[in-house]
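#structure-requests
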Amino acid sequence: HGAVASCESRNSFLDMGNEESVPVPHSRPDPRAHARFAQLAAMAEPRDRISRDVIVALFSTTGAEDFGALLYDLEKSIKGKDLDETAYTHAVAAALGFSDGDDAAPSPAKFFFRVYAAGQATMDRAALLKFVASIGSLALAAHFQGATAVTEKSPVVQSIVTSVLGGKDVVDADAFASFVQRECPRLLSGAAKWVEIQGLGSNGAEVPDDAPSWSVRSSIVGVMGSDLGRTNILSRELLWLLSASVPDAYLAAGAWTPLYNSVAHGHGANRFFHHVLHYKGPTVVLVRGDDGEVIAACVDSEWKVDEGAFGGANCKLLTMAPIISHYAHPVKVNADLKTRHTAHGIAIGGNPDYHRAMLWLFSDLGFGIIRCDPALAIGTTRKFEIGTVEVWGCGPQEASARQTYERHRDLQLAEQMQKVRLPESWAESPDRFILGLAGISVDQHSRIAAQTR
């Protein structure tokens, strides 16, 4: 699909400007490609070929209107030619070969970069903005019907481009691919899924057992279906970036479940823990500051209060805006709301306490302190005002059902405790019994007290 090439063309579109040809991995045509060709050709004349206009319309979408033309024109040898079934099915196989993660093939990041670089070795900021907005639009189109375009002014696009450039004026394909691998390895999964959906006629979820091993099985499909109706932070664009960045454990169960929203549920650690305790699955905590910073804490353990540090190998701390960055060291979480003579709050980082945490959230969730901001000098901190805090559950539906059950059980226990019968007289009081054990004659004291009144 994509770079529609004839099978005899030596696959020069794979070179993307390189002098030597790159072997096509897993280039066996997918059986769905034949069915897709028949579907497209049935609407054309003659019915054994597909024109360039059909290909361009097929792969373009809102926000990426030129993607189909860029893919088609990448292969110089088919310039202006119609494609027969053999050419189409092999072109689909070749294009999807870039998204299988095989080290023998160019990476999806390099492939899509060179599609949009239009023969240039580098991109400047303006070109990168258009490129990132386009691949974001492709990703949303692959997961949402009628998705709107991702624009160059999007804060997510701005964060990605600023982070990729890293203060430089231009970036090449290798540098872009290195950034993607390091910070957001699934950033191109959505765009690759769009190519598969359009080229194979797949609905994006079903991959037949006999499909070639390169067929895209996007791990972000389920997560992109999360209900965003009750969020003040998580836009579709940020969800795309987050799903590209978090560890696999946070994608395995599919759609995320909103657990806590400080705007809807109230600020403060007590409200926070009321909504997250007993959730037995990984969670993502999103913190948005009043200056636009967005921080994501990925917590792979059940939340605890005043029980010491917790968190496993998939506990991560990410900054999403204005710069994208992973805190590279092991991360632990500690919620301390009771210790006397110390600050109370939630600490996240290698040393999760108030003085050394990479991210500290005061217990009122009004302010935070960050040490992992890539814009900060090593060893320095920055205090920021918190606008909104959200927690998303990333476990299976059973985790939400279990949390509901345990919260209901706790409520019943609390109600039962309130119904415990209190003693009706001093003679039945447990205080009287305890004082008696201490040798205090409570009855005589009571008589003397009564005589003096």
